Amino acid sequence: MITVSMDQLPFGSMDRSPVTRSHWKIFTISSMGMFLNGYDLSVITLAMVVIPHQIGLSTEQYLAVNASAFAGMLMGAPLIGRLADRIGRRRIFGLDLILFVVFAILSGLSTNFLELFSFRFLLGLGIGGDYPVSSTMVSEFSPIRPR
Description:
Layout: H1 12-16, H2 21-47, H3 51-55, H4 59-87, H5 89-108, H6 113-141
C-alpha cells in the first residue's frame, strides 16, 4: 500500500496556507462580478418601465427582452463553464468581463427591439458564464479551512 502525505499532493501546501491578500483579491474580484450581474438584472427591471415607450416595444417584444438575458444565462453557464475547464479560468474570466462590459454598454445604446434583444442575450451569456467561473476560481484558490 502506498501512503501519500498532503505535502506530496500538488495543492497540499496551498490547502494548509493561511488566507492572504491574494485570496482576498480573488474573492473580491469574483464577488464584484456576481454583484454586477445581480445589479444589471435588477436595474433592467426598473429601466423596462421606460424603455418600451422610448423605442416602441410591443407587449411581446417587452416580454422577449426581459427573458433574453435569462435565456443567455441558461446557455452561457454550461458553455462558458466548459470552455473555462478547457482553456483556463483566468482567460475565460477576462473574456467574461469583456462580454459583460461591452454588451451592457451596447444594451444601453440600443435604439430598437432587435438590438436590445440581441445585446441582452449576449450579456446573459456573460452573466451565466460568470457564475461557474468565479465561484470555481474562489474555491480553487482558497485554503481548505475557510472554504
